[in-house]
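OP here, attaching both records as promised.
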Amino acid sequence: MENIIINILAMLLTLGILVTVHEFGHFWVARRCGVKVERFSIGFGKPLLKWTRQGTEYVIALLPLGGYVKMLGEQDVAIPESERHLAFNHKPLSQRAAIVAAGPLANFLLAIFLYWLMFMVGVSGVAPVVGTVKNDSPAALAGLQAGDEIVAVDGESTRTWQEVQVQLLGRLGESGFLNLTATSPERAKPLVARINLERWLNNDAEPDPLQALGITPFRLDIPPRLGEIVAGGRAESAGLLPGDLVLAVNGDKLGGWLEWIDIVRANPESDLQLVVERGGERINLELRPALTMAEDGSERGFIGAGVSTPEVMPTLPPEMNREIRYSAWQALPQALSETWNNTVFVLDSIKKMILGLISVENLSGPITIAQIAGQTATYGFEYYIGFLAVLSISLGVLNLLPIPVLDGGHLFYYLVETIIRRPVPEKVQAMGMQIGITLIVGIMLIAFYNDVNRLF
């Protein structure tokens, strides 16, 4: 229940910030162009709070899934002669275009500011050092080994696992070669692991690029030594005892307790051949994890055994910690670059979705946004503002798409008006509005359906 409350509050805060900034962009430029703003609303539906200042009614409404700026002259109603100079539809085309474009532009400016702030505060991460490589996986066949550090993906430098993931996600749905540049103290020169992709993960609803390549990041681990054994559980039935050290599973050497958990969870009702060390001797045992259902509805293995906590817990080597921090001046070009790269990524993802190169199941709605907002808020400041920046960019890009109803649709009409030297006929605009509404509602329904599917 506590998590649900945190998620809802984080979503309200997130959407509130994004919508307010977007609508303020329209509002600010409209005022500078001499347009009378009749209402500035955050949210839709019944007003929860409203006040009037300098002729504008400010509203905070019940449904926080958007907002709007109502300007004089937007509706087809008679305008007194004395106020025509204040009406939106009586302003020059250049001013109308500037007012419409100001909303998405404000979202991009917000993203730049957030990234600037994030890079000044500092971004922490873990060096992209490979922990294990699955046998016969694409990464293994390309020569990647445990202990390698991935220093570049397709020639783009990577300093943390997060940067590796971003580069890999950019290749979803594509065909061709993926190049991973890796270094290691054991290598005389860097390895360029060349991996062939064919419509890579295009049907995956929740793609995991690292898992698909067969790569597990280096993780702090403790010895896979068993502690408490649950009476009547599969571990006891297999003959396992407290203090047993699991050395190998199905012939593969076991790295640590976290790897052991992954193996057990991934093999419900499957026979596992174990080699354990007990009292200085090696013993062969057969274990069959029981089938259980996780909270997310997935099937997992369970054996009824706990871990024996070591006296001294391991710590991450200092060279594995990466903190990226810049001065105020240095952070600005980094923020501009990050905003540009993410804008290109969002546009590329939309193109791939339209072409069928990636699944529409990747679309997310308010439920997923609430969950991620809640998680990032609990992780810390840098994670939350990074997520907020990505959402702001996504909102800016989506609003610039040439779809009637959206800002991009209005800008498209203005472009046509510039070319034909007269406004687009009202019948055409009305038809486009209906198509736009249908399209947007359809996208929202798909996103909501995906959200519900992820819950169950």
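Record two, same layout:
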Amino acid sequence: MHIYFSGVGGAGIFPCAVLALKLGYSVTGSDLADSPAKFQKLRDLGATIEVGQDGSQIRNADRANNIDWFVYSSALLMHNPDHPEYVYAEKKNIKMSKLNTFLNELTSSNQKQVAIAGTHGKTTTTAMFVWLLKELGLKHGYMVGGEPAFGPAADITPDAEWFVFENDEFDRRFLEFSPHYTILSGVTYDHFDIYPTESDYHDAFRTYISQCRQAYMCATDRDTLYGQSAPENIVVLPEIDGIKLLGTVNRFDASMVVGAASDMGLGDTGTLVKIMNRFPGVKRRFEKITENLYTDYAHTPEKIRGALGVAKESSEHVVVIYEPLHNTRQHRIRDQYKDMFTGIKKLYWVPTFLARENPDQAVLSPKELIADMDNPEIAQPASLDDDLRSVIDLHLEAGDLVLVVSAGGANSLDSWLRQEFKVNQ
């Protein structure tokens, strides 16, 4: 089967293409922007990847070998309702589907699916569960939104008994799945462009949970979604003692994984805790760039606080360089910046990374957002330029821990940082 992935450099599409290659499918694909490291990995596995999406890429791929399946992300038609590749596939009557529909069919019915859902912590929690399966020697496949420190973003063998994956609520895509097990890593209202109200957001999670055979969550999320009366398929997990990972948020995620894995019969709690305490982490989650310089994907209030917590446990002198994600989100969460950055030495605030924005909303500047802080005196606007590079160098020379908070992607703060410090994208 020949599968064409449109937007193959995306966080969801890329690992899915890896899985298809691992299972022996013929893979071609394209993306508007080049992702050299990702694309080389796909080419090494046998894929043909092109940069550009003017329609010629999919046309050439189809002529060389008839395309059986066109797989695309939710963002494709959001950016362009008349996307050339979508239009071509439609005219040629090629089978078409979004990523999750493909993933559902890709994972065989005899695999036990473990889906990690929730507003924050999905990538880390998914990687943690994969780490347990790996260390226990169980045959498995997985797809992680980030790249674990212990392996690629996705992998699978034809005889896999388990399949673990992130199940994102964006665009309501998680509702396409009915996994055996799901673990909720935390539920806090987000994706305001998809869910008009908090009630709508919670309703979607309740619907998703009803589709799962067994759902694991903490008491707080149970209370948020159901009050004290929850469906019979929900298991409320207590906090597990003995987890020694850095950061409150990481210890919480690890506790959820250990509790769920123990309930599934994968091992006794003590053994699972020992394995989890060896968890090596995930790239873009407090990822070390060089000595005392770290980058993190945090972009919601809970994620930002979690990343700051890890940094503060690591150093008494924390400096943050912050790039918000989505102007629409900033309009919703700006009041939460009030006390978010307490306890740090200095904050440099760069302009918001814009994507999927409401054109009728004014773009909030760093100066405007800093004004919402209780301690604006520690903050100043900044730009991705030589001055910022000099600031980073000065703080590193002074022995400060510099945490770069950025959602990443082409032309983002994280991308700029990696170019400045010669780190692979």
